[in-house]
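Technical note accompanying the year-one report. For the benefit of new consortium partners, we illustrate the data format agreed upon in the data management plan: each record pairs a sequence with a structure-token string. No post-processing was applied to the example shown here.
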Amino acid sequence: MRHPLLSVAAGLALLLTVGLGSAPPAAASEGVTSTATQTYDFRPAQHLVHVTVDLAVKNTIPSTTTYEPCIQYTWDPYWGLEPYSTTCPHTTNYYITKGSVWVEDSARNLKITADSGSVSKAVSTASYGYTNYTLTFQRTFYGHTRKIRVTYDLPGAAPRTAGGIRAGQAYAYFCAIGNGPDGGTIRIITPTAFSFSHNDSAGLAFSTSQSGGRTVYSSGSLVAPVSAWSCFEGINVSGFASQTVQAPDGRSVIVAAWPEDPAWGAAVAADVRSSLPGIERLVGRPLPGTGSLAILEVGGLGDYGGFYYPDTNIAVINEDFTQPGLTAHELSHAWFNDKAFKSTWLAEGYAQWVGSQNGAASCDRAPAYPGSGNANLEAWSYLGAKSTAAERALVDYQYNAACWVIASVADRIGTARMTAVLAALFDGTSAYGTSTASNTKPATWQAWLDAVDELGMVPAGEADLDLVQNELAQVGVAADRATLSARSSARAAYHELLTTTGWTIPAAITGPLTKWEFGSASKAITTAQTAYADLSAAEDAVPDSAALSSPIGDTWQAARSQADLETVATTAKAERQAAEALVAAQRSLDQADFMATIGLIGTTTAPTHQAAVAALRRGDATAAMSDVDALTAALTDARSAGSIRVALAGGLGLGFAATVIVWRRRRGGRVLAPAQARLVAVASAPETPSSQIALELADVRAELEARPPEGPAGPPAWLISLVSDPESARALLASDGPPPSLAPDAVPPPESA
């Protein structure tokens, strides 16, 4: 706490001696040195701080002598006293009668004494809770020091009453100042049972010593103690009146009140019982840490209601416990603190939101920014000891705006999804499930936004992927519009891919998304889209290939890097090309020309086709293309075979036509199938020479004459055998049964030829 500079008013008197005489004193204004040792003795048993100020006011103005014309007298025995002119010394002696001291307005039992004579006081000025008294004492001449002792008490104020001093059995808070513009010391004496911390003015530092159960803090010699100050806050753990509240998980929450304030202990303990179970349900986990959590009553927090210290599991709540939701707010900081969130606004926003659910005012509207320029919750402001109205308005805005962000999200996604969001943030897991990159702890606001969007808003059915992102921009958190635009594009493509494929999105995509590397994420998404499209096209071309269910799809989902995805894309492209080539090859077979059709009779391409499909099903595009090449080669070979077969069939057909004409005349048009089959078998055999064919024709004619005609008329079996399977023709020729396709009556008389 600061106070105005001390000024010491010195009263000076002038003693003028003319010759052997003297003159009345006159006032002067310089030549005084004032120092002070100021001691604050904290006495908890008496609930006060006893203050002693030892002033030393020294006159440093020496006497001065001057010579002036004067009349002196001499004794003459004849004439008696005779005057004569000369110069006489004139001596001036200075003295001081005044000093001053600063005293707190709350001082009681003020006493002022001097080492000699009496001392009176009069108010000089007053400022910031302090009064400056002018002290008047006996004349003090050059080289002498007037010692003055000022003592008074600073009583501790009752809880929740005006006055910053607290001097109880468990808690103490008071500020010390210095006196004496020319030097001095500040000392603080406290019981060793208390543990004190202090906030000091610039350049002030204390050394400590202990003796007789007392701790002494000493500033040492100060050049200007009048401008020094220090505020001390102390706690005596054994002095609190404590009660224990059991948390749902069995942990103990110790509520420690001042013994002078039982109302605080009862009210805060009731708040803990009512709010803690709900907080644990919301967060989805018990109180963090081990051991008990303690809530201590304190004062001296100024404009703040409380603080939580995660390293020690200790919360402090101001003696003014009547603020609604205050206990729940501070309890929630066991989870929401700087170990959980890198940004203060997130920790305070969650705590404020929890408080709003436990009696504090709701924060369901975006507050208007009271400052100049643009809002920025990332640049969190704190209040000092003497905050202005504008500073308090800005801090109020911060709390309300942070709470609004959290509350608006919670209203949209519900408490169950908010619990899932918090679990991901507390555990450091990515909102994008397959990401290999975990979030850093404490969580950044970027990680929070991802978790809220992916684990809350999207599952809740929110179609606007940028809703929360835009709300953060309103409060100055998400200010980089280029980055936000890239995030929007990447997330839109990500969700389109997720919807289109139904597959698990690979870490090659979710990793860059988690790290906010949206250029890399977009590139990976494009590569993945291309690969999936190729696999989908392969399956459309050859449905039996089940290309989307092939191992390529598993490799797609397991990709961990851009290089992995590019390998998958290359494989998927080959799969598509193989499938399309298979379709083209099969189409060529199905639409084969006459020669190829003749050449394909008696052969089958089905096994090769099935092998190609099987290769596609297992994602082996190389094997599939090999099978496609085999089908293409089969078609080419079929055209050659067809040409040979047609040529052979044409030559044998002329010879046999003559035979048939002769025997139709002789047998009435009856041609026996076995003879034809034998002829075809002979003609189709590649090892049969031309000379042998004529002999075989004669045998056929003899056989046809000898056999009786049987069966209905039909197509010539020899031609069918010729163009189909020579082996079957041989078997037909060797059979003893009647020919199946020609009746004896079908042969016309010779003259009809």
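Partners are asked to follow this layout when depositing records. Residues 1-29, 654-698, 700-705, 707-753 have pLDDT under 50 and may be disordered.
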